[in-house]
Amino acid sequence: MTPSPAAFVEVDVTFRALDAGSSVDRWLPGLFAAAWPSYLAWFLSEGEAARPSYAESAGQLRWHMPELAGTYDALVEAVGGGDLQARFLSHWCPPPLATACSLGVWPGGPNMLVRNYDYPLQQCDTTVLASAWQGPRVLAMSDCLWGAVDGVNEHGLAVAIAFGGRRVVGPGFGIGLVVRYLLEVARSVAEAIEILSRLPVSMAYNVGLVDRLGHGAIIAVAPDKPAVVTPSLTAGNRQGPTEWPEHAAMCATVEREEALGVAIADPQTTAAGLVAMFLRAPVWRDPATTPWGTVYTAAYDADWGTLDLLWPNDSWRLSVHDVVEGSRVRRSWAAVPDVVWPVEGDPSTMPVPVGW
């Protein structure tokens, strides 16, 4: 059953690029104030008692990510220093959520990482944030203020994620802060793999990595099993056999995985050809036909430290080495929240933050 066209509305969405430099006081307090009501509604969606205390949340961050402790403390103070804000910003044991997304790793001339971000449009931060909080520059698509869903650092390491398609939830960090940590402290794929092997994560994810040394990998992480380097350089939303068939059907992960697998195995495929795959069906998912359409394609060149934000009819290049600022207004489609969806495309069956 296909959703009715009346289930979608045209909207303008603004993609913005902001440069925080070495301070958390620039841009972030204003961004947080605007988003906090929605962040809080999601954070408390299972009740406050379901979220760990400040002592546990901050303690876990200091233990597992000590390099981020100073930035975390400064950020909590910058946004008001409240208990709930501090617990939220720790990213420790957040409420579960699911996404779609696709990954492609192209190591060795050029060293590229490509991903599609497939998610309800109204729930995306759509902010590219540049920063230098630990010294090295980082350019990333932000998530929950200081987390990241994809990014690159000045050392030439690019990171991106795709949901692993499993319902398992456990004690660990939200993947956004894990990506942030990798970009802040790792210089290579090898260092990133070592970090992923020891960090606890709250849900299952596929993590794409590439560096300017010519190394690339996709790592499967989960709260119930050790991190594993997968044999593939592409990924959708599974970690082996399908474990959540409703989610797999809704986001067409098998079709996307098969298309990318064929492309990456074809000796005629080039890096540009792989990027082009992400801009057409079945990898690109039309936001006018599905509640989890493609919001953007991100193509990271680890050699040059650039991010190309791509759409079928537009592009925007940013660099980790430049001052990052500006905006792009995109006309797109968004799902109407109160429409009754067919089972295979019903966003209410997925554990996602509402109204974000």
How many strand elements? Answer: 15
Read across the widest sheet, the strand sequence of neighbours is 10-9-8-7-6-5-4-1-15
Radius of gyration: 19 Å
Q: Which class in CATH terms?
A: Alpha Beta
The CATH homology group name: Penicillin V Acylase, Chain A
CATH topology: Penicillin V Acylase, Chain A
Q: How does CATH name the architecture?
A: 4-Layer Sandwich
Describe the global form: globular
- In round numbers, the mean pLDDT is 92
Q: Please, how many domains?
A: 1
Global structural class: alpha+beta
Biggest sheet character: 9 strands, mixed
Keyphrases for this structure?
globular; disordered C terminus; 25% helix; nine-stranded mixed sheet; alpha+beta
Describe this structure in words.
- The structure is a single chain.
- This protein is an alpha+beta fold.
- The protein has a single domain, classed as Penicillin V Acylase, Chain A, CATH 3.60.60.
- 25% of the residues lie in helices and 28% in strands.
- The chain has helices at 28-43, 54-64, 69-78, 83-89, 175-185, 189-196, 245-251, 253-265, 271-277; strands at residues 8-19, 102-106, 112-118, 127-131, 138-143, 147-153, 157-163, 205-211, 216-222, 225-229, 234-235, 294-301, 306-311, 314-319, 326-335.
- A hairpin with a 3-residue loop joins strand 6 and strand 7.
- Mean pLDDT is 92; it is low at 340-356.
